[in-house]
Task: structure prediction
Amino acid sequence: MTANHTTAKPPHASFAQLLLRTALKRTGSGYIHSAAAEPFAETAYAQELALKNQALSEFWQKHHLGGTPQEIIASPMPRHYRATTKRRCLVRNGKVSFEFAVPGHGGCGGVAVSSLEPQAHAGVYRFLHAEISRPPFRALAEALNYIIIRNSLGRLCIIFNVERLSATIVRRLKAMAESLKHAPYPVASCFAMLGRSGSAYYLEPEQEGGGEPWLKKLFGPRGIGMEFEGKRLMYPPVVFSQVNESMVPVMVREVRALCSPRADHRLVDLYCGYGLFSHALAPAVGEIVGIDIDGRAVAAARDNAAHLGHGGKARFIAGTLSGELLQSRLPSPGRMPEIVILDPPRQGTGPDIIGPIAERGPARVVHICCGIDEIPRETGEWRRCGYQLSRAVPLDMFAGTANVEMLMLFIPSVRRHFAHD
Result:
């Protein structure tokens, strides 16, 4: 582990700690649940935004990040927005419960509910709970890790994550899939996946000997999808997608404005997934190169590009993002001016990513942070590599929780401009 990418605790309080401290000072403990994963779920949304803006300003000042972030852009759907939800299935004393998969938040009995989730999800969880609680499904209940519900073009996709398989469990999965065709809300598809590893990531299928993950379609189409700006994007049911789909058009609009794309630009889309930003900016740029570790997401990005009609100028690469991969797989940086979108997971970029990107001399970099506590480290690394933070645009992607998403625009510093003269 290098000094550039350490897991040591930050010298200051985390954003969540500052936010909860601010909330307790201003409102009293009756308005929030400070120990919960959704501390503001029952708070008036205007008040939640005010608290988050104050905490963000304090976070910015404590870490000496320079400038001032914009006001947080509100979520069009601050409640009932989660496009992907999950419940851990537990059997205790002969009774089945569907519980939140958060340490210290179990033991609800029955079905846990959240005001951040769609009512359709709650209805299907209740339906499944009644079915799985019946004696014929006891073996399936005891084998289940999670039940996952994902939105797909106005309908639902159900995924059963099981820790083991047997002939009995497979039969029960098929029977449960048949039952779902009579659920109170429209279910488009159903899948079973094997998750013996016990991973905390509930959409991580088991891989046998390095082969394809075990994921079996029980009924419905093989992919799920979302729409924005008149575009329909499809992707496999276990691939990451934004949890707040109401914010996707807002996010795309802001990223596009920060990138200022031109027809002579090459877009380098890192951690591209199924290509959300690539496909959004495709009409405005001359060339696209996307990279992601998930081969299934990359295959979906290629299919989406072909379907949308810009496959000829888009290339998507599957691989673990590293300085070596950037140097060996990206085209020469001198042929076209570049803009870069960097959308890493919550833990941020690795130790050898920002430097090689900066060496390519992109005109603009839009770095997206969904783990806000990584911002001081990431910003410092860009500064050391000759880039300065120009704008910071926070989005309330995770309304009801103690987190926000940040879009940061980095441009070459004056020193770097002089170096290129």
Remarks:
- DSSP finds twelve helices and 16 strands in the chain.
